[in-house]
Amino acid sequence: MEKILISACLLGLPVRYDNKIQPVENECVQKWHKEGRLVVVCPEVKGGLSTPRPPAEIMAGSGEDVLTGDACIHNSAGGDVTRAFITGAQEALDLVQQFHIRMAILKEKSPSCGSHFIYDGSFSRRLIPGRGVTAALLIRNGVAVFSEKDVVLACEFLGML
Ligand code: SF4
To answer: Ligand 1: which residues within 6 Å by Cβ?
Structure first.
């Protein structure tokens, strides 16, 4: 059975930086969960960060730039957390390879999981087009990444695999 990688916070697990519980309400996701298809990951926790934690943003760049060493990630306290984000992304990729995963549902706007939008590094809630580090690494390795807003598209894609 085709497995699907999913951001842990989308299943309501308490892994978000602010410790809030925000599960995605979606029949497809619930069905996949019941079928045992979902492989759950929080890259930031896998990378060694605690919950709760200060919010973090990519500084002047995208997830791709972080992977090439051309951008870094700071938290709101000014700490450099780039290494934890890269480690977490690698952990997510390890799961993808272990379970031969071809698609992922990742939380939009996150500096790890965002697939269309991320915050701009100013900690002023300003969004820019771009991907988080994990989303960028998975896409680089051939995984189809959908956000929680695109689960319908993900359902259709799964039907074509
Ligand atoms: Fe973890 Fe990704 Fe959810 Fe952030 S968006 S809490 S990194 S699973």
So the answer is: 7-9, 15-16, 42-44, 107, 110, 112-113
